[in-house]
Design brief:
Elements (H helix, E strand, L loop, with lengths): L20 E2 H15 L5 H14 L2 H18 L2 H22 L4 H6 L1 H15 L9 H5 L15 H20 L6 H21 L7 H14 L7 H18 L7 H18 L6 H9 L12 H19 L5 E4 L2 E4 H25 L7 H21 L2 H22 L2 H4 L9 H19 L8 H12 L4
Antiparallel strand pairs: 1-3, 2-3
Helix pairs in contact: 1-2, 1-4, 2-3, 3-4, 3-6, 4-6, 8-9, 8-11, 9-10, 10-12, 11-12, 15-16, 15-19, 16-17, 17-19, 17-20, 19-20
Length: about 475
Amino acid sequence: MTLRSATPDSFDALPNPRGGAVRSAELALAEALLAYEQRGECAAALVRASHALREAGWLGAQRFADALVRLSPLATSDPSNADDARPVFGAALRDFRAALERHNLRELSCSPTLFNHYRAVCAHLAEHSPGSTVAFEDLALTGRPVPPVSLPAQSADRLAHLRARYERALLPVLRAQPDNSGAALAFANAALDELDAVLDELAGADPYDFWRLARACAKALRVGNRATGEPDARRFYARCNLTLADHARGIQRAPRSLVRATLALLWRDYALFGAAAEDADQVEVLHDYGLTVDWHVAGTQASEMLWEAGVAEAQAISASRVSLTRELGVLTVNAHAYEDFLQTADAAISALTQHARMADQPEKADPSEALQAGDAAYRLGAAACALGLGHVALVADALGLAWRRRAHAGVSTPAVRAHVIVGAPAASTLEQAAEALRAMLHKVAAGVAPPGAAATLAALTRAIEEGGA
């Protein structure tokens, strides 16, 4: 069971009271909003916000800010377009400013509210730059590597039978509406049950089998009550049907765009609301793709409300201790959260360095050790994300994914490897990435903003997406 905010008319997830703040970006957005309301020029303030967000490593937020920069002339100075673009721009700017002040990096990447604004902004831009398309994963997975995903060989007869079942159940799902009730709702749920059953039969043991990912996504959509009536859900189910046809024709790799879209939908609610014990299988799939979530224990509405009340109290305490902060470049962090992060980071980086050195000794290769290394990287990535260290979080999550791929490549049998697109990233790549993370963390410990790690991330991305090196 995933959690939901008790205030659905607010933003998508809860604020992060101990998270870092990019104050210069917040001030720039406030300046831009004031200029907008006074019908003045606000592009310069938005550009400053974008630069600050890039420096902090808040890449999804930077992408949103860049879209606002491009639309701002149409919304504030062009009389022929202002009446049309102005309300779209203003609503997006207001909600983006509010979201940024909540200091929740996962929300900034995965918020449906923000994405709807982003899509509306880009729709206006597309009128002047046709040919561009916008998808949810463009924000959610900004800067993240995504491994290749396979369609392992299965018999043509079996695939034809499963596709026939899938197609029969698909139409009622595509026609269903979110406000369905009674017989219509029961009919749609029965069709969804059948789609789930087909995906269960299709899913194999390979961690990077597309049908395993699709099954997890379908389950997440149903748990979040998003499986019917939502455009992205309809698109997912329809594209799975097309992919079944491709699979039957012998295509061995799932389309990258479909993998990204499916992964982003799977991650969305868990990124926003966290996961509980019964979501462990879903979280394991996310870990196989380099994504992490927060864990929550709340299992009832009452316990959820208590948990949210605790967050509100922590936020109030944080606000009353403004002086207890540290400056890391453009990022302002809570001093207590900063000290907690350093302890987590020290243990994680020591483990990662040790695992990387062991990986260079093939005779001692152990898939379980690789999984432990991946988990250490994910702990570091999650802690960095909570503190607001975007660059550190992105590299740590990518390193966790590289270790996961090494673990899965190590346990694949020769028969499985013939059909699996899993390459083991080189030990040298893992060790270099661990050392780059260590250097970034030394900067953080010294009270200095860690630089971006574009070269390290690029090397990890090549190792993850190209199957080795």
